[in-house]
C-alpha cells in the first residue's frame, strides 16, 4: 500500500518538514556527484554498527548517526521516504511546533539507529536512510490521528485501486509488516551484506509514539498569534 495524500488540515506552514526534505535531496545530489568515490565516502561518514560498538562515544560515531539520516541508496529509496515525510510530517510539526518537531525527528532517527545497531552489532555495512526517523513520524501520526483518512494506492494481484483508508489501518499494517519481516530475518548473516533495516523502522516507530506523548503532542495545539490578534 502506498499513501498518496492525507486529508488533515494544518494551521502553520511546515517549514522544518520542507527543510528536512530539501536537506535529504541536497545530500543525495552530493552522493551522486561523488561517482566512483561514493562507497569509500559512505564508509567514512555513514553509521556502521560494528564501528559504533568498538568506540560508542567517538566523535565520528556520534556525527555519523546524524549524517546517515540524510543519505540514501538510490532514487527510489529517496523518493519513497520523502513521500511519507511529505504526507505525514506536516501534521506532526503542526502539533509540536517547529523547534520541537526538529528535535522529535532527530531523536526518532537516533533511536532507530541504535535499534539497528543492537539488532546487528557485528554489521560492517553502512546504514543510511531517513526511514528510521520517518518511522518515528508515522508512530506519532498513529497516536495523534488514528482515524484520519489517507488516500492510498492498493495493489490487488494485477489490479490497482485507490481508496481512502484510516491511518490506523495503513500505519498499523506497515508496522506489523516490519515486525514480521524483521523477525523473519533475525539471525541472518548480515555482517557484510546490506538490506532493509527493519529494526531501525521498528525502533523509530516506537520511539515516535513515546516521544510525541512526552513532548506534549496530545495536547490541543495553541492558537497562532494571528488568531489572537484578529479575535
Mind telling me the CATH class?
Mainly Alpha
Runs with pLDDT <50, length 5+? 226-231
Tally of discrete structural domains: 1
Q: H/E series, N to C?
A: EHHHHHHHEEHHH
- The count of strands amounts to 3
Q: What is the CATH architecture descriptor?
A: Up-down Bundle
Distance between the termini: 43 Å
Your description of this structure?
- The protein has helices at 15-34, 38-45, 49-54, 59-68, 75-96, 98-119, 131-144, 167-185, 198-214, 225-230, and strands at 2-6, 149-156, 159-166.
- It is mainly alpha-helical and 231 residues long.
- The chain has one domain (2-230): Rhomboid-like (Rhomboid-like fold, Up-down Bundle).
- A three-stranded antiparallel β-sheet has the order 1-2-3.
- Helix 5 (75-96) crosses helix 6 (98-119), helix 5 crosses helix 7 (131-144) and helix 8 (167-185) crosses helix 9.
- The longest helix is centred in the middle third of the chain and has 22 residues, at 75-96.
- Mean pLDDT is 88; it is low at 226-231.
Amino acid at each position: 500500500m502506498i499513501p498518496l495524500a492525507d486529508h488533515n488540515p494544518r494551521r502553520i506552514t511546515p517549514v522544518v518538514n520542507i527543510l528536512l526534505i530539501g536537506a535529504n535531496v541536497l545530500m543525495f545530489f552530493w552522493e551522486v556527484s561523488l561517482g566512483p568515490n561514493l562507497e569509500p565516502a559512505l564508509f567514512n561518514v555513514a553509521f556502521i554498527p560494528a564501528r559504533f560498538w568498538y568506540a560508542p562515544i567517538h566523535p565520528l560515531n556520534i556525527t555519523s548517526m546524524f549524517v546517515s539520516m540524510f543519505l540514501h541508496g538510490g532514487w527510489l529509496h529517496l523518493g519513497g521516504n520523502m513521500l511519507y515525510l511529505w504526507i505525514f510530517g506536516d501534521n506532526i510539526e503542526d502539533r509540536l511546533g517547529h523547534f520541537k518537531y526538529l528535535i522529535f525527528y532527530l531523536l526518532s532517527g537516533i533511536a532507530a539507529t541504535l535499534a539497528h545497531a543492537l539488532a546487528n552489532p557485528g554489521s560492517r555495512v553502512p546504514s543510511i536512510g531517513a526511514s528510521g526517523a520517518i518511522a518515528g513520524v508515522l508512530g506519532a501520526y498513529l497516536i495523534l490521528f488514528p482515524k484520519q483518512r489517507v488516500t492510498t494506492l492498493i495493489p490487488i494481484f494485477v489490479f490497482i485501486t485507490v481508496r481512502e483508508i484510516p491511518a490506523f489501518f495503513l500505519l498499523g499494517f506497515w508496522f506489523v509488516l516490519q515486525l514480521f519481516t524483521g523477525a523473519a530475518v533475525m539471525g541472518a548473516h548480515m555482517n557484510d551484506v546490506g538490506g532493509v533495516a527493519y529494526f531501525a523502522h521498528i525502533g523509530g516507530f516506537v520511539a515516535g509514539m513515546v516521544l510525541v506523548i512526552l513532548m506534549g503532542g496530545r495536547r490541543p495545539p495553541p492558537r497562532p498569534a494571528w488568531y489572537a490578534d484578529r479575535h
